[in-house]
Amino acid sequence: MKIRFWGVRGSIACPGPQTIKYGGNTTCIEIRTDENDLIILDAGTGIFPLSHTLFGELPLTCHIFITHTHWDHIQGLPFFIPTFIPGNTVRLHGAFDPINNGDLREVLSRQMEYCYFPVREAELQANMHYVTLRERQTIQVGSARVTNIFMNHPVLNFGYRVECRGKSVFFTGDHEPMTNVYDIEDDGFPEYQTLMDQKHQSITEFIRGVDVLIADTSYTPEEYKTKKGWGHGTFDTSIHLGRETGAKHLFFTHHEPTRSDAALEKVFQEAMERHPRQPGDPVYHLAREGLIFEV
After folding, report:
1. Fewer Cβ atoms within 10 Å of its own Cβ: the N or the C terminal residue of the chain?
2. What angle do CA 95, 117, 20 make, to 5 degrees?
């Protein structure tokens, strides 16, 4: 499989001179199987430049897997050019919306209503297919299998494991380590802690042994103190997850949008000094736009 990062920022796109090296687009990852099947993880603003590379493959079939429907993960979708071209087939996969009890198509169609965008979803010219996934449902994409698991975020967020010919990649989407919302002296603390421990173990086992782990690494530990419950991880929690799951390579992504390239490299270096690489640890990488990694 070949992985290419098209968007590595969290929350909001932040193009400019301070983000030239790592990029300012929000989350989008392209995965190509050995047979060149196209899998796209999330449709942040990075999916727009990705779409410009696909004209030579028309008519194409692509499979887009949405981790969750917060804007930074879907805002590029209305600008995904293949959806406007007859003959293309676009298959979108993601979770249902428990707030409005809507399926994936209803959720994604809202951002293409006239008050937000000049083209309605019903006017798209490609063959559009929507698959509202159940947890741990597996989708076959050519020679690849894509299976999901619920992660920890303020809305339903799927982490996706992509497996192809003995190789595997896991993307967390947005994920905050499981946290007990009770104080230790509260009556509900022990029971809730058991629930959190079980969910953490479930996620860990699901990821175990992947060749590539791509993890939400929005904050430093110091920043996290004021951002608990926002649904994001830190360098330290991602390193812990990588070590615990036996991942071979760990890519830090969903970079904090106010962090410049220089500041990003600084906090990365500080994390490496706090956690010197030990035998068996993953190889650590900062995800950046344009980076291609083959597994």
Report:
1. C
2. 80
